[in-house]
Predict the structure.
Amino acid sequence: MKEIKAFIFDLDGVITDTAEYHYLAWKELSNKLEVPFDREFNENLKGVSRMDSLEKILTKGNISGKFKEEEKIIIAEEKNEIYKELIKNITPKDLLPGIENLLKGLKGKDIKIALASASKNAMTVINGLKVYEYFDFIADAAICKNNKPAPDIFLMAAEGLGINPEECIGVEDAEAGIEAINSAKMFSVGVGDTKRMKNANMIFHSTKELNIDTIVKEFNNI
């Protein structure tokens, strides 16, 4: 029988709610570009890389062809600078409910922990949250060839841990992330509403509901 040997977490919306900071940064940038931007559209950017997110915004405003590739890189970096200013004051108080206890519980069971975030600022956030010590491996989005929904970042995390993907649990709050976990042949745990997480192997409505024993039981039933 397969055994769970690792949990691989997304960052935004799972460990902490930096999604709000991303939203504010993209909204400020979109206002400058004169592209309508609201929280509903922002849902399409969750779990998506910076450049791919920008492309979605430019396409929405029918202005994608207006910019050369090097100009798009500059625009995306402007968004990143706005975001980095917003996350400077992140502290352990910004951890989502139940997450630190979950990380402690995994450590107590000798289950490995990795981070698989599309954010290139993941290390800054993890350090600000004071949870770096819990992670055995943090996948580097900067060198990941293909972004979510491709499985690359989760496979990178599993490889970094030295663990077979089929022995890993992936935890996500975005549809693209769930697709990435499933493509990596991992057991997928979705955090959020049932409709968006419908393709996950298991769904929790919030992080405070995440429970190791419940997940292990469901994993063993598959």
The chain has nine helices and six strands.
